[in-house]
Amino acid sequence: MSDLTARIRDNIVLFGALAANLGIAVAKFVAAGMTGSSSMLTEGVHSVVDSGNQVLLLYGQKRAKRPADAAHPFGYGRELYFWAFVVAILIFAIGAGVSVYEGYLHIIEPEALTDPTINYVVIAISFALEGSSWWIARREFKASKGDLGWWQAIHQSKDPAGFIVLFEDSAALAGLVIAAIGVWASHAFGDPRIDGYASIAIGIVLGIVAALLARESKGLLIGERADPQVVARVREAVAAHPAITAVNHVRTIHTAPDSIFVAISADFDDSLTMGQGEMMIEQIEQTLKKTEPRLSSIYIRPEKASDAISDGAAAR
């Protein structure tokens, strides 16, 4: 399998969303130009922003895979989280901002709409393409979430690409429904301003999605611990060694979606020599990497249980 084919397969959600949004954006702008629909224009901007977002996430994934170096000893994995946060800001600043602004202009200076047929055709085609992208994103995220609920899985996910596309596509489908209602109502009631209100509603939806994405991306950017089940497995694996009398604490942080740094404080048997302790640490590290392959960096600190308790109390 070629590198390009493997990359497309690994990023099928992003590439699928990018292809759909580029085609949809062109169709929406053509429809908006022919009919004067404000909601169709804002939907076109929305699709352009979404396309740019997928490009940024693909760029972030590529940058995040760079190997560790002297300046970044834990690698560049968290750069993906930075670009995910940028995506959230772009959705709010450009997607939501332009939608609300265009809607406001259309309300204060309404334009008479022409035959809405082309709008309905474009909306139907866009819904089909956007729905296909949404289905792919939902399928991939469902496969990765396991038994967790949808919102719990999103909150605990350490790979922002999957849930960002899912959120974007969900917002896009909601926007298309609002745009269709706006076009229909403006003609049904003979008031072109209704289309402007629909554009503002689309902007509000995008603003809500952007706020949710920003919150999740901020947590990843600052640094989040690994899943509690991972922490429990690490603790059990360390405690199982006969020369470990107690595991004081296990602290983890994701340095990338598939990379975890773990720091372990454990009480060693007092009879161990320095050489035996070094050998034991090496054995524990090998066991941990077999138990959880995502552990990229392991730090094990020998510490008396009483000292660890004192340090914890002082920190509080």
In helices, the fraction of residues equals over 70%
Low-confidence stretches: 1-9
Domain module count: 2
Q: What's the gyration radius in Å? A: 25 Å
Helical stretch tally: 11
Describe the biggest sheet?
3 strands, mixed
Proportion of strand residues = 5-15%
Helix/strand class: mainly alpha
Q: Quick one: how many beta strands? A: 3
What do these coordinates show?
This protein has 316 residues and is mainly alpha-helical. It has two domains: 3-222, Cation efflux protein transmembrane domain (Alpha-lytic protease prodomain-like); 228-315, Cation efflux protein, cytoplasmic domain (Alpha-Beta Plaits, 2-Layer Sandwich). It has eleven helices and three strands, in the order αααααααααββαβα. Strands 1-2-3 form a three-stranded mixed β-sheet, sandwiched between helices. A hairpin with a 2-residue loop joins β1 (244-256) and β2. α2 (12-35) runs antiparallel to α3 (38-64). The longest helix is centred in the first third of the chain and has 30 residues, at 79-108. It is elongated, with a radius of gyration of 25 Å. Residues 1-9 have low confidence and may be disordered. Belongs to the cation diffusion facilitator (CDF) transporter (TC 2.A.4) family. Keywords: Membrane, Transmembrane, Transmembrane helix, Transport. Its main location: membrane. The chain crosses the membrane at residues 12-31, 80-98, 118-137, 161-184, 196-214. It holds the Pfam family Cation_efflux.
